[in-house]
Design brief:
alpha/beta, 3-stranded mixed β-sheet
Length: 152
């Protein structure tokens, strides 16, 4: 996935369907628990804000952007050196973390995207997360970034 594709989506130059195609094409299943996300870095910095996150919530809630695509997008943003957000806005960090690893956090479905939207707009406060069960040696999933060289 080109990081620039997400930036283009946020500024209105790429449709949600095109973003979904980019995201889904970047996901490579290596094994039952291992996935790589092929990512092409962008040259500039883009600052993600709550409005951008709400747009992703809406696309996830209405099904135009599959949960698997949003998970790949969240992983790409977290792994990127070119996406940033206000460091004081823990909500963006929290939601990106939730989306990047739904196996541990919340499943990605219309209900949870609506919940995350309410968190972003301030109409609901996130609940305390229960501590993770300590199960040594149990690998839930592994996701890796694979850099892809850009085209023209």
């Amino acid at each position: 996935m080109r990081e620039d594709a997400l930036k283009q989506f946020f500024i209105g130059d790429l449709s949600v369907n095109q973003l979904a195609m980019h995201a889904m094409a970047s996901i490579k299943k290596i094994g039952p628990r291992e996935t790589t996300i092929e990512i092409e870095d962008m040259a500039s910095i883009y600052s993600i804000n709550r409005e951008n996150m709400v747009v992703l919530c809406n696309a996830g809630a209405d099904g135009t952007l599959p949960g698997e695509a949003i998970s790949a997008i969240a992983f790409m943003v977290i792994a990127s050196d070119h996406f940033e957000w206000d460091g004081d806005d823990e909500m963006i960090s929290e939601i990106l973390s939730d989306w990047s690893c739904p196996e541990v956090n919340y499943p990605l479905n219309a209900s949870t995207f609506q919940m995350h939207r309410r968190w972003l707009v301030g109409s609901e406060t996130p609940p305390e997360k229960p501590p993770l069960a300590k199960k040594r040696g149990r690998l839930i999933s592994m996701r890796r970034k694979v850099l892809v060289e850009g085209g023209p």
